[in-house]
Input
Amino acid sequence: MGVIIGPRVIEAGLSLRLVLISPVAVAAGFPSPAQDYFDGRIDLNEHLIKDITSTYIVRVSGDSMEQAGISDGDELIVNRALEPRDGSVVVAVLDGELTVKRLKITAAGVVLQAANPLYPDISVPALADLTIWGVATRCLHHV
Amino acid sequence: MSEARQQIALVDVNCFYASAERAFDPSLEGKPLVVLSNNDGCAVTRSPEAKALGISTGEPWFKIAPRAKEWGLVARSSNYELYGDISARVMELLGRYSAWLEVYSIDEAFLGIKGSPDQVVGLGRTIRTAVQRNVGMPVCVGIAATKTLAKLANRWAKNNPALGGVCRWESMDPESRELLMARLPVSEVWGVAGRLERRLNAMGICSILELSRADPVMVRDRFSVVLMRTVLELRGTPCLPLEEERVGRDQLIFSRSFSTPLTSVPEFRQVLSVYAQQASARLARHHLQAKVLTAFAGTSHYNPKDKSFPSVCVPLPMPTSDPVLLTRAAHALLPAIQDGVKYARAGIMVTDLRPSGNQQPLEPFTNPHEERGIGPLVEQISRKYGRSTIGLGFAGLRSGLDWSMKRGMRSPRYTTHWDELPVARAN
Output
C-alpha cells in the first residue's frame, strides 16, 4: 500500500470532486452508454489528502483522546501545512515526543487538552510557545 | 540588464539526512547526531552539534563510537526509504514555484525564476518557509545569474544566519563578493577538485577570485571547455543551462560493504548473482541494455594485511539486460578471488548503456534467454509479489542473507510502511 507516496499530483487546496462510477455491467459487444461519464473510480487519496507534500500518517498510542473519537491504535491523517485553530486536534511536540491533543485558543491563553478529564491540561501564554507538528484532519478509526 | 531576466535559484536542504531524522523524532533536536553510510561504516551527515564536536565527514564509526556516550552523540543508520520519500516531497513542492526545475541530487535542485531582485529574493523566502512548513526540512536558497554563482550564494546563505537562509549574489555589494571569492579556494567551486585543483594551484590560481580572473581562452586551451565555462559562469555569463532531466545515464553501480567479510568463492558466487539480477531489473525498468560489465571486490582499507582488490571487465556478447548473461559475466570475477582473504566489499557496474530495442541483432546473435523472456518474467513476478520471491540459481531466495547490510541503528521507515508509522502519544 502506498497511500501517501503515490506519485499523484494533488493541487494544494483542491476541493473534493464528485466522481461518477460505472453504474452497471453491460453485455459484451455493446458500447456502454455510461462510459462517456466514467471518470475513474473513487480515489481515497484524493478524498483524504489535500496536499501530498505536507500530509503524513501517524499512529495513536493511548486512550486520552477516546472521547474525541480517536482510539488507541487509530491512524491520524495529519497536514503540517494547516494553520492550527481553536478546536483543532493537533499533533504537538511535548518533551521530545509527538502528542495528540485538542487545541483551545482563548483570550486568556492557549491550552492543550486531552479528551479525558483524567489527563491534565497544558497551558501556555501564546501559540508561539508550542511546537505544533501538524493538524489532524481525519482519523482512520478501527471499527 | 533587464529586470525580468532569468535567474537561477539553488535550493538545498541543510544537513539533509539529519534533518529528515529529526523531523519525525523531535527528541533528536539539539543533540549531536550523525547518520552513517551503508553498513554503518562512517559518518556521512553530521548535525551542526556533531560538527562542533570535531567529527568530520567520512570519519569511521568505529573511531567515533567509543566516545558517543560521553558526548551524548546519537547515530542513525541510513534510512534511504525515508530520505527518498522526503526528497520527493521537497522536489514536488519546489516544482510548484517554477516550471523549470532540475533535480540535481537527493537534496538539491536548481529552479529557473524571473522577477526583480526584490521579487526573486521574496520568492526564495516563500520557498524556504513552504518547505519548512510542509515537509519540515530547513533549506537555504542561493540565487544568481548562473548555476555556479547560485552554488556560491547558497553556500554564503548557509554560513551567514543573518541572511535568513536566502542570498542573491548580485544583491551583495561588489567588495563583499570579491572578498568572499578571494577567501575561498578553487576547490570550493562547483566541479573543481583533486588533480584539477593541484594543476590550477601550480599556475598560481588558488582562490575563486583568481580563477574568475583567468583568461577564458587560456583556460580552454590548457584545461578544458568545461573549466572555461566555469570561469565565464563565475563572471556572471550563464553557460550551463537548466536541464529538465538528465538523459543518458551512462552507468549503473551495485555495490555494498558487507556486515561480515566474505571469504570464499561460493559466497561470492551468490553475491555476484544477486547484483547481476538487480542490475538486470534496473536496466529493464529503464528500457536499457548494457554492453560492458565490470565486477570488483576489495578488502577493507582498515585491514592493512591481505590487501586484495580484484576486478574484471567483461565485454558482453551483445547489448543486453538478460539476467542469465549478466550473472555469467559477473562470475568472471570468481577466479580472481583469493580463498581465505577477508573481502569487505564487492559490486558490479554496467556501462556503455543504450536504449533497448534500438537495434535488432541478426538472428544468429539473438540470445536464447532473452527470447524466452526470462528477464521480464522475473521482473514481473518480483514486482507483483515482492523482491526475494524469485531469483536465479545462485542468488537463492533466503531472506536476510548474512552478508546483507548492517543497519542496526536505522529509524523506522515512517512514511512508506504502515507498521512503522510515527507514533503520536495520547497518554
Remarks:
- Chain B is about 35% helix and 20% strand.
